[in-house]
Amino acid sequence: MRYPRLRLRCSILFGLIILSLFCFVTFNTILWSTTEPEPQEHIPQPPKPPVDIPLWSAIGHENIYDIKATKILKLTNHASSITGERIEELYQLVRSAKDDHVKNPYSRDSTWSLEKFVGKIFNNTTNDASKRDDTADSNRKKARKHNSTNVDETTTEHDKKQLRYFIHRAMAKWKKRHLNDKIITLGDLLHDTLAQDDPKRLNTTWFQFTKTVTNLRVYNIYSSEYTNLFKYLQYGEITEANEMPQGTQIKIILDLPNGFQGLLKPFRVPRNYQTPSDHFYFSDVERHHAEIAAFHVDKVLGFNRVPPVIGRIFNITKDIREKATSELAGSFFISPANNTCFRGHCSYYCDTGHAVCGKPGDHLEGSVQVLLPRPPEIDWQKLTHPYRRSYSSTKKADWETNENYCYEYIMIDEDYHNRLMLDMMDLAAFDFIIGNLDRHHMMRISSFGNNTSLIYVDHGRSFGRYDYDDLSILTPIRHCCFFRYTTFKRLYRVYKQGLSKLVSKSLKNFEGLQMILIDEHLTAIDRRLEIIFAHLDACIKIYTVKGVMIDDGID
Ligand SMILES: Nc1ncnc2c1ncn2[C@@H]1O[C@H](COP(=O)(O)OP(=O)(O)OP(=O)(O)O)[C@@H](O)[C@H]1O
Ligand SMILES: [Mn+2]
């Protein structure tokens, strides 16, 4: 009797031991699975969020280290609405249109005339004669004061077709007249005056360079003068540093060896600086890296219309202060951080709070652009851009409220019945790519006559944003819907090769300063190029390829 009971007790005890062992193991497994640390693999740090550096702190920011900062997570991407296939299709369409010899895609109505149309707009003009521009001789100026509220009723679809016919005919005539124009060089223009007034300058390297500047291109990348020019700009000993009187922000004219002069724009903000969204373009700070980048973009596009610029490292004391005119020298001081600084004299950012400072000490980065001869040696024409912004925080410009602006202001203006019309479109495409809202004037050397390219200067306010594409810069193209065949081909060529690739390669090979364009800007220029094609596509859908594209004989 005793043994079976003992056996039962033993089995119960054994069962209990097994059960508690089981519970222990299970509990431990659960416990360890929740507290055991992850296997020690490398855990990547999450990328830092975007840093918009506000202007007031950006001016005091570090240079070299900052430029490597900021990878942004997400762009406010304006994906363009055009596909790669459509761009190919457009290219084929444009190419075959160029080869087909239809003279004018529009047909003429002999009862319509430009004079009558101008008269019609002019009748809509406010009768207040005192408001009219008495000195104006061009139709645009005559029509300037017309009442834009009546505009839509004024210009009919028929008027538009006739105006487009008129422009195509004017351009064909212009092309014929200028087809055999001789290329003129700046050297040709300067020669006689220099021979008379200052013959020694004829023997300078600078004069040799002016012989490579023509009415069509500001430089020739294949010339040795072009290659040598950069050595002067980048390393040439500075003999005098003088403030440039024109313009709103500090710029210094440097006298360099062998007759060269350079225009210095100093470092003000790091490469990843974005224009604060509450800032207007007209109070934006100028960026030396934007000047450099704009030059490379223009060069890659093959326009060669931006005077060569290169980055340079200065010793602010030896290169600038010791060479400065007394006025500039008087604005130097040593900052609390022991850096050498100067204020300069200008209407924006020329106070102690916004001084240009070496960092550290005497080390200053800047862009140096070759200074082309100016009056009285060479005459420039400074044309107010008809699509200029209002430069006011409260007013809008006429073109912003009048969709017919191109028909009513530009196409009737004889100043635009020539290559200038398409030069303005080229400029719009360029400015859109670099994000430049500050094109208040168009500049060209009038001593070259009227078959001359625009010269693109002043890009310090471009590349202000990489996360935003300002479509309003393309308004001339959207409104007028005219475009040069050769420019289309140019854009297509860089599109195929990759604009950003070409630009970064150009910067890598020819620019000494590092990381002039951060990746976000490089992404932006590719995106913008596609947007230009999308705009041209929209024009072509309305006006046909032949109605939009023009061959004015200019490459
Ligand atoms: N490389 C150059 N060669 C000759 N002249 C130049 C060159 N760059 C600029 N200029 C002249 O100097 C003027 C002022 O230069 P820039 O436009 O760069 O300065 P800015 O301060 O931006 O002027 P603004 O405030 O009027 O826009 C230009 O309008 C042009 O006439
Ligand atoms: Mn400017």
From TrEMBL:
Pfam families: Fam20C (PF06702). Residues 332-543 form the FAM20 C-terminal domain. GO terms for molecular function: ATP binding; metal ion binding; phosphotransferase activity, alcohol group as acceptor. Residues 128-156 are annotated as: Disordered. It is found in: Golgi apparatus. Keywords: ATP-binding, Disulfide bond, Glycoprotein, Golgi apparatus, Manganese, Membrane, Metal-binding, Nucleotide-binding, Transmembrane, Transmembrane helix. Mn(2+) binds at residues 286, 458. Its cofactor is Mn(2+). Residues 129-140 have a biased composition (Basic and acidic residues). The active site is at residue 438. The chain crosses the membrane at residues 12-32. ATP binds at residues 249, 265, 286, 369-372, 458. Belongs to the FAM20 family. PANTHER family: DENTIN MATRIX PROTEIN 4 PROTEIN FAM20 (PTHR12450), EXTRACELLULAR SERINE_THREONINE PROTEIN CG31145 (PTHR12450:SF22). This is FAM20 C-terminal domain-containing protein. It comes from Rotaria sordida.
